[in-house]
Please model this.
Amino acid sequence: MSADFLYGIEVIINGLMAGVLYALVALGFVLIFKASGIFNYAQGVMALFAALTLVGIMEGEVPFSHLINAVFGTNIHHFGWEVPALLAILLTLVVMIFFAWAVQQFVFRHLVGQEPIILFMATIGLAYFLEGVGDLMWGSDIKTLALGLPQGGSLWVEDMTSGLGGDDFYGFFIDKLDMVATVVAIVLVTGLILFAQYTKQGRAMRAVADDHQAALSVGISLNFIWVLVWSLAGLVALVAGIMWGAKSGVQFSLSLIALKALPVLMLGGFTSIPGAIVGGLIIGVGEKLFEYIIGPMVGGATENWFAYVLALIFLVFRPQGLFGEKIIERV
Amino acid sequence: MKDMLTPYVTDDGRQIGDILMDMRNITLRFGGVEAIKDISFNIQEGEIRAIIGPNGAGKSSMLNVISGFYNPQEGEVWFRGKKRPPMKPFQVARLGIARTFQNIALFEGMSVLDNVMTGRLNHMNAGLFSQALWKGRAEREETENREAVERVIDFLEIQAIRKTPVGRLPYGLKKRVELARALAAEPKLLLLDEPMAGMNVEEKEDMSRFILDVNDEFGTTIALIEHDMGVVMDLSDRVIVMDYGRKIGDGTPEEVRNNQEVIDAYLGVAHD
Model:
């Protein structure tokens, strides 16, 4: 096998792993959109907020310390303890569930029955609000998320595959963190699917996603289900925040990954969980492969726009996405 | 006139019990429009109670008041001897009041089996932990619920379409699946909003038979709205007639048929 061909395969593998992270963010969008028709612009900021909170709790930082110090003239920043990673993750999850409840209680409960554009505007407001709260709670400096996840290229994979090509081929370079992210994503998605298929709450969730009126008539509280889907979206955001944060540090540009989820959704369809996953993988592979093959001819940096152009093409020829429900207008 | 406030036995020998649902002086307004004007009536245990009237008479509004989709501005709703505070529809459903809709509200993307299964949601009490481990209560409940659902599916003769997504079914069968979902909840009171609307003669006969069988077999109390006068007279034990939001008649089909006001308002008018 020629080395070029093998490097192409390596690009595809790395693309798939990058795609997993896109898919994770897109999944958060789909969960909320299916159940409530709200396009949650704040999903990316939720991932940022979750990562910030996780780092803050782990390092024993005092939330709102700047505010407290300014008001009371104190000078506290740390509790002086460190919280183990697993406990910190659980505590962060509690914070995300509280956030889900608050969003429903104070925002969307009052907007039931409003136009989609109004709900969308509310989520934009929510995004900036949450970004501000994250800033106020934990400060705006870039943080490193030291969960102790394996990082760097996997030597094992490199050694195992170096014999495949000629002298020009040194084996596949695959980041260990990407491998971990892939495994975690698979576990998360499997868990979500099992939850939706076989539990009472999952059934109720699917029922609400399908028809609100019918759901009410069988005794499902819409309010509860909406808190539930926002909580699940918070969980997905936490996982995405951990993976992205471990990869490139917890910083405010993290919230921009939400924008990469948009083309993923246009590809996969806004209402399909498999669509979000497949869409994420296609975008991941597509942009890496495009950069590898076409990139050198056009001066590179195609990863910035490739996903959006692909989404645009999809919008023209298949507006409902790969897996979305076909839009049929009856006249 | 028969004394309706005490238990009685119907002509075909069914025992009708105490008052299950008592609507007292219900008034419902939408802005300045009075959809229901000071209406009182009751539904007794084991009865088939019909609400009839011309279009816009307020029949559906009344059903929506009973099922909690609307809360009346005035009047009291009594259920099983207790005054019911204003409630959300899902809370009413949890009290044991199931319903179907005039324009069918099913989960189109789910199979018939899954749809009927959602009717059992209020019979699932196992905690998430038990459900995850699939032990103890969760396992036992799931078995019970599956059995209950299969009974309903057999009863309504929809075994052949168990796995079919509801979105692909013809109209008449969708109506039947909706009834199955409501029945699966084992309701104390079953509300049917025009169960035969848009059906052909054969489908109507099937549906009438199912309604009678449900009442007979499970002793389910049923309140239904219907346009088809013939069907109503054959099916129901007692009939309420509404017109322009008022109640203009209440009694056995025989009594209602002979009520002059009813004849003027509804039966006397040439109707399809």
